Fold this sequence. Notes:
Elements: E1 5-11, H1 24-37, E2 41-48, H2 58-68, E3 73-76
Domain Resolvase/invertase-type recombinase catalytic: 5-77
Organism: Candidatus Nomurabacteria bacterium RIFCSPLOWO2_02_FULL_40_67
Pfam families: Resolvase
Amino acid sequence: MNKQKYFLYARKSTEDDDKQVMSIEAQLFELREFARKENLEILEEFQESKSAKKPGREKFGEMMGKIENMDGVGILT
């Protein structure tokens, strides 16, 4: 059986440090552990330190561009 394929995306706002508890590294650790336990294949990891309030998150856009050109790839975030 083929593993389901995913991208990992971790983001921490540069504006709301007091509201967002988990660091990018902690988010990635949790996502990797989840993927391992669920036997999911991670194709690539994306991380970004940017507010989601305004459009223009570069890494998110890059990831979405790749997804549009691939079949059956999901996102863990």
